[in-house]
């Protein structure tokens, strides 16, 4: 089991990992060894994710989620398969952890009387400064 939060975990058999050839620098090694990792996680059909987390995961994953509800993560930062696999799993855990967080609802607040008075006083002061700057015609 891969622990996401203390109350949420996913089974390791829900994750499909394939190794592909990495692009970019790496010399001859990049042409011989498949070090990049493509991780696939079927979020829509996962029995371990609550419905609310699944719904938020669609928004959080964005373009990393396919139409079928499968999250695809491509990791090739490191030169070894093991480190790339760990990196891909960590990124998946971070995505699910972000989707598992529910922001507390915003409570409506009203400005205090003192803050209203401060605002009106500053407006009055600013208006007075602008009135003093107005050019008065001579003899007025």
TrEMBL record:
Pfam families: RF-1 (PF00472). Transmembrane segments: none annotated. GO terms for molecular function: peptidyl-tRNA hydrolase activity; ribosome binding; translation release factor activity. Residues 115-127 have a biased composition (Basic and acidic residues). GO terms for biological process: rescue of stalled ribosome. Residues 104-140 are annotated as: Disordered. InterPro entries: Pep_chain_release_fac_I, Pep_chain_release_fac_I_sf. Residues 21-37 form the Prokaryotic-type class I peptide chain release factors domain. Signal peptide: none annotated. Belongs to the prokaryotic/mitochondrial release factor family. This is Ribosome-associated protein.
